Every structure is written in C-alpha cells, then in structure tokens.
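Practice problem: receptor protein-tyrosine kinase
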Amino acid sequence: MVNKATVVFLLSLAVLGHLPQSLCWKREENSIFFDGAVFLHRNFALETDILRKVKTSGEVHCGLACLSEKDCIAQTYCAESWAKTKGTCYLHKNGIKDEQTTGVLVRREECTYQQYINFYEASCSRQCHNGNRCSYDYDNRRYACRCEPPCTAIQFRFTTLGMQGNSGPTSTAGYVNTTLKGAVTLHNGIQIWTVPFTALYELTVAGASGGDTSFSGGKGAIVNGSVHLTKGTELHLLIGQKGLKGTGQNVGAGGGGGTFVVFSNNTLLAAAGGGGGPGGQITAKNGDNGQTSRNGSVYGGVNGLGGSVCADEVSNAGGGGGFKGDGKCSTSIMCTFPRKCNQGGLSYLNGGLGGSGNGIGGFGGGGAADKKFPGGGGGYSGGGVYASSYTPKGGGGGSYYTGEMKPSNEVNAADGYVLIDFDGSLL
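Answer key — structure tokens:
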C-alpha cells in the first residue's frame, strides 16, 4: 500500500514546474522519507560528489533511488535524448545551498537537479538535552538531537609505554589495543596527541616515584580537574618515569620524573612533580613526595627552575629538572654556587632527560644518584638534594595547575601517567 509520504512526494514532482521551488514534508514512523526540503533546478546538473549512477525510468524513480540510498542527499536525472522516459540517475552524497548554483551546477539540457535538504532550514527547533546536539543524522537522513562522537564515556590513558630510565619511549606499540591506537606520535620521547573532539574533559596528571633502596623513594604528586579542550588542539605529553637504584651496596636512587602536559607552543597546561630518591646507607631518609606546590623541596627550585644540592661532603648527586631550568650539582662541600652536571635532570624545555649516574634519574627531569646520595625529583620546579653522610635525602619536584584543576590527596608509587576522560554529561 502506498503511504501518505509517497503520495506527497510524487505529487510534488508533478507540480513543481520549471523554476527552483521547495516543498517540505514530515517524516513518518518507519518511513524511508525524512524532514527536509526539495530544491529543483531544470536543465542543470551537479557533476561532483557522485555516490553512484543508475538507470531509471524518469525523475520519480530517480528520487526513490536516492531515498533508498543511505548517504544520498541529492540527485541529478538526465533523460536520454531519444527516450524521455528513460535516463541516468546520479546520486550525490553532498548538496548545495540554494543561492550557490552559479559555478556549482552545470547547465545540461534534459537534466534536472533535485535536493532533499535545505541547509538553511532551522531543522532542530526543539531543545536537545543530556549532551546531545542538533545535527544531521546521515544514517536516518534527518536532523535530530544526537550525541557528538563518541556517544559513550571514553578514556585516553597515556603511559611510559614500558620504557625505563632517563630517556622516553621510542615506540607506540603499547597503544595498539587502546583508545590511543594510531593517535600518538613521538618526538624525543615526548608523546604528541591531537584532541579528537571539543568537550570538557577530566584531566589527571601523575608524576613518577623515586627509585627505592632499603628506603622508599618519594611518591609522585597527582593533580586533576576539568579542562576544556578544542578539537584539533595538539598536546605534548612527557610521562615521567621512575628513578632507578644504583648498582652496589649502600648506594642511593635516582629521583622520579615529573609529568607534563603542554600545548604545542610550549605553554604549560599542567605538571605533576616526581618523588625524590632515598639515600643508600642506614641513616638515610625516604625521598620526599612530589610537591603539590609549585616549588621543589629540599633545596628545590622555584618558579620552574631546577633543584640544587647542599652537601657537607663531596658529592655529584643531581637535582631534579624543572619546566624551564635544569637540575644542578653542588660545588665542593657547600650549599651555594650550584654547577651544571650530567647527574642533574634536564628541564622540559631542554628535552626532559633524567640525570645519568649510578642511580639514574627518571625521564621527566629526575636527578641521578651518586654513591650513597640520592637524586631529586623532576617537576614544574625540580627537587633538590641534601647530601649528608647522616641523613641524605632527595626532594620532590613541584607541580603546576590552574583553573579547575587542583592537587589530589592521593600519590603515585610507580611510573607517571596522564588520564584524559570524557563523559557526555560534561559537555
């Protein structure tokens, strides 16, 4: 039985005439028709965006062919010169705005262009709720309140990709079975990711812990909160790696790397401080945790600079790197005149490598240990070191957060990580 929508469609084609006109009809339940408008242009054709072409007996059958094709929005029917009731029907996946015919439609005798969507129509008069937005539903070929992709909660989890030590990952193979498959590239260990859709996200940033000896390395700081990210924004993520213990007896451990989330122009979005390393002998102290303030602890850096070392005996232990400044070592037996050294962790802006020595600092600016003395943690400002025979201790790196982000009461006892969570309710 022919339904009402079909009758309306057939009648519209019969009465439209030779001038561009429009006709709207309402989609019926379980019907192949949809809300929209018909633009009709006699003796014109659209020669682009063709899904496929079929032979039909007239404009009516051409219209039915388009309405039965999932992605068809418009059609061009060209009658055969020798048989007006037979011709070629071109099905188009894209249409035009009505005034854009010049230069888009090509004049062709015996051809008729018809379109089923008015792109200027206020097609969603109703208000959408629960994170839905009014948009064109290509599956059902109508305007509707729809969830922007993805329509369910999704989490992007950035890790160290199994890398250890003072340099970052060299392969993204660890993301193969995750939501980050094919979405991350690497540059000197820093992970580059492009925001896939505009939304309000929950961002969690965790620094790495310091290495362990018979004492514990400091835990990494965690900061989290809501951030609005725009589709196409490129983020650079340095995921801090845990510091390592040196080889031999009574040796210290390196500081943990800080974790950084940075825009492509080197503007910092958030950073979480890495934990300081512990000393190696019996009177040593556990490393300090990553700090929830911006400054590092235990002779730590301030305002994004690296940590220093205060020594009461000769030591080459390194301070943790900050966002802007490298970690330093001490000059002889004193707490002043810090010096550049291989054990100091590098700043984010200088690549974020951990310090090298006997007790490597973690990627993310962790300072390296030297003998029984530990390294400081990396972070927004690097952690420092107290190099004493009695109570050596590595300081934790500082953290950075603004806006809706804040420090967590929890800490991280492993490698760093970043979580970027989307929940449709946050749109």
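Discussion: Confidence is low (pLDDT under 50) at residues 1-37. Students who identified this feature from the tokens alone can consider the problem solved.
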